[in-house]
Known about the structure:
Strand order of the largest sheet: 1-2
Structural class: mainly alpha
Distance between the termini: 106 Å
Number of helices: 6
Largest sheet: 2 strands, parallel
Shape: extended
Amino acid sequence: TAEPDAKTYLGHLLREMLPAGEPELPAAWTLDEQLAAAVELLHRHDFVTADFTLADLRRYFERYWINIMAAHRYRPSPYAGRLTLFRARDRADLPAEVLGDPTLGWGILAAGGVEIHEVPGNHFNLTRPPHVAALAAQLRACLERLPEAPGPAAAEPPPPPPAEPAWQAGAEAALDLAGAGALDLAAARRDTAGSVARSGEIEP
């Protein structure tokens, strides 16, 4: 398959973004010349904000072109299940071999068949008003027909902590008592030494 042409795809992009009837950019122009003219067209139709520049369009088109090349080189694997295709009504820019297939090429990949739902708009604007309302309605209807998935299993309570051995509890209690006793004895020893020293019986 021949490599995609950037100027051709810029033309596809503009036709899908701009109102019908807008004249195409001259094919003899360079890509940079076409991008500069495209910025003016986008501003004229209020498709972009006032501060949108040629540099912004270049960055956007570079990302768009990366996606085009990735799609061109991608080779999908067969899928064992059934697919649901939301097919845009306006698809005049698709290749003839794709337009001739109601499934747009997905039929040869989905072993379980393809369920087709046609929605208004084209590839770019079907997710924007006013077309997105129709897409959302059809998507909701498809989801409501799905069988309910089993809910998550109830989480089991965590196991209780292991019982403390009796010898461990007794040993810890003995250590606590011994510690308290040692502190008391030390305090008593200091008090006693101070009293004796004050009575003059021994030197402090």
